[in-house]
Amino acid sequence: MAEALENKPEGTPLSEKKWYVVRVQSGREEQVAEALKRRVQAAGLQDQIGDIVVPMEKVTEIRSQRKIVRDKKLYPGYIMIEMAQSKDAWFLVRETPGIGDFLGLKEPIPMAEHEVAKIRAAQAPEEADKPRIKIDYQKGDAVRIKEGAFENFDGVVEEINPQKGIVVVTITIFGRPTRVDLEYWQVEKI
Q1: Which residues span the domain enclosing 166?
Q2: 114 and 22 in a common domain
Q3: Are 94 and 154 within one domain?
Q4: Higher pLDDT, 156 or 190
Q5: What's the number of domains the chain is made of?
Q6: Is the whole-model pTM more than 0.70?
Q7: Is there a contact between 132 and 162 (Cβ–Cβ < 8 Å)?
Q8: 170 has which bridge partners?
């Protein structure tokens, strides 16, 4: 990208902003994004670097018999940056502490529009109000029912419906296998 930027004649208008994926220190995505936003403000490059996003989704899980909603990073170790291909913007991003490099072989590759739309939709406030349910079971896992009419029965997970939070478990009643639909929080792994 550096060669492409150096060959750009002075006075040429900046290309439109595109979205790029940048590797950052894992576990520090929010801090690096905030540091980059401060550096953009200080350098006055708001016209070249737009939005900086740490892609996240809301996840519901049960911990200690309580329902908890938390943010989960979709892509740990990466952030998304909307920026124009300019030498100043590129160097500002590259020189920010905690940032590794852009995704791409020799030069950064912009994200496809449908990928950006998908991630931006997950960030939308109305989507954030509906957290996704985290179910730690897979088909074939042995589980014990911890609540309900079949409490203390052991079974095997047959199906999982994360949208509804339902786990279908096969248990043995009177020597016959029986499928039972249960809420995800009613079972635990053995």
Answers
A1: 142-189
A2: yes
A3: no
A4: 156
A5: 2
A6: no
A7: yes
A8: 156, 179
Question: pLDDT by residue (tens digit) across 52-89?
Answer: 999 988 887 777 777 788 888 889 999 999 999 888 88
125 lies in the same domain as 151: no
Torsion angle, alpha carbons of 113, 17, 127, 69, to 10: 120
Identify residue 178 by its one-letter amino acid code: T
- In angstroms, the CA 146 to CA 155 distance is 11
Same domain, 70 and 127: yes
d(C-alpha 39, C-alpha 35), whole Å: 6
One domain, residues 37 and 77:
yes
Q: Are residues 51 and 73 in the same domain?
A: yes
Q: Phi and psi for 6 in degrees, rounded to 5?
A: -70, -30
Residue 33 corresponds to which amino acid?
A
79-137 per-position pLDDT tens digit: 999 999 888 888 999 899 999 988 887 788 899 999 888 888 777 665 545 667 778 88
Domain of 46, CATH number, reads 3.30.70.940
Instruction: Report the distance separating Cα 48 and Cα 39, nearest Å.
Output: 13
Residue carrying the six token digits 């670097």: 49
69 bridge partner residues: 60
